[in-house]
Design brief:
Layout (H helix, E strand, L loop, with lengths): L1 H7 L12 H16 L12 E3 L6 E3 L1 H11 L6 H27 L2 H13 L1 H6 L8 H17 L6 H17 L3 H10 L8 H17 L1 H9 L3 H9 L8 H14 L3 H7 L17 H17 L4 H12 L2 H4 L13 H7 L1 H9 L20 E2 L2 E2 L2 H29 L9 H11 L6 E4 L7 H10 L7 E4 L10 E4 L8 E6 L2 E5 L2
Parallel strand pairs: 5-6, 5-7
Antiparallel strand pairs: 1-2, 3-4, 7-9, 8-9
Helix pairs in contact: 2-3, 2-22, 4-5, 4-7, 7-8, 8-9, 8-10, 15-19, 15-20, 16-18, 19-20
Length: 505
Amino acid sequence: MGLLFTAYTSGLTKNPPGFFVDESCTAYNAYLLAHTGAGEFGPRFPLFFEVYRGEYVQYYHPVEEYLLAAIFLFLPPSIVVVRLYDAFVMFTACLLLGLLARQLSGRRLIGVIVTAFALATPWFFEIGRLAWEVHLVPLLTVLYLHAVYRVYRKEEWNWLNVTSLVFTLALLTYCYASGRVLGPLMAGGLIFFATNRRRLLAVGLTWLSYGMTLIPMFLFSRNHPGVLLKRFLEVSSLRPTKPLGENLSNFILRFVEDQNLTGLLLTGDAHARHHVQSAGGAFFYSVFVLVVIGLFIVIVRRWRDPWWRFVLYGLVAAIVPGAITNWPFHTLRLLAWPVFLLLLTVPAIEWLIARSSQSTASESLPAKSSTEFKIFEAPVPRFLRLSILTCLLAFAAVETYWFQAASRRDGPRREAEFDVPYKDAYEAAVKQPSRPIYLEDGRWGPAYIHALWYATMEKRPTSQFAYLKPGTKPPSGAVVLSTGDTPEGCQDIMHAYIYRLYKVP
């Protein structure tokens, strides 16, 4: 596992380069939480973290901040430490997904194959290197699926089963903005397992317990009106002021757009921060072929099974967080979708490796007849099925090599997307004798947080910096690090991309 994780994280110090402003914000607030019990603003041990200032104010979710704060209790603040932690979260999600595949199929080989697919998937690999809260979505989705699978196999659910469902649902809900949509949707999917009166009561108890975990969010929203909806209103075409028909039409259009195979297989997310544009799609062709085969098997042969009906439901529900926003195929908001796509490879691989005279070894299903291995009632020779799987695995290896080569070649070139020039401007600023250095947020965003994070890493007192409120003029002789234009009459010291260092006369 150590060797595998080393290979998985190789090149992490260069790809991606620099540190994006949201990454600095997450890391800085987590460090403050670890050592002061509070973030940059607000009370001690908050539920949601107020970050940035002025027009850029946002509220970060608690799960990532508290987990990363636990890291900073033992390790010094460092970009490498933060990125290694985030990669470890995604790495763990991939391993647990493979473990679930092994439990579903009863075959260790299938677990290994699905784990390899998950680790190699560009979608997971790239998002796992971004150092903010989104990477928790796959891990918590997989943990919830493990909890669901355990209760699926039981006739009666005990308190431990209900607790595991509620706990993972709550973490999913509080981990990221899309989690606030995914959590209730995943909870709703439990209705597929209410196959008798006892289970219906257990599902109801789970819903009630999960609802209680949402009370803190509702109280926070009541005390801070509109703050949790602010980001949604910024990125969504849905509006309460629009007619229902128009909102529904926009949602359906976006829902269809997010299933576009062009983005999935050819181009990936159009945002260079989320995906290396020259590295192909977010998902491999070879794995998608297995997804299609698995989907066909589930619809034709296993649709009566509550577990697989839940997987199909999850496949659809995972698209909703992306469909309610206005960016087509936004991989961060769709990050639960590849979890369900990869799960559908399990019945496909089962069918491809199974002996025609035997039923598939699956712990999740009763014994099946040999017709399980027929398509349109025509038997498919095992040699042909194994040949298909071998070709797909070989093609997946080629796709993995090609993606890794493109990612490692072009990923470090995304300097603008990851605010690399800010570090140059910061280093020039701290070399100036004038103190404090004034930090100004201009039209290009709240980059002041970079200076506080870099100073924290260097053990430089943050008191050497002063935030310049909008509309406030710095004193004469002050050095200003800004994301705006240099004011008339001021002396430009350095200009690095959108960042300017200037001196007030």
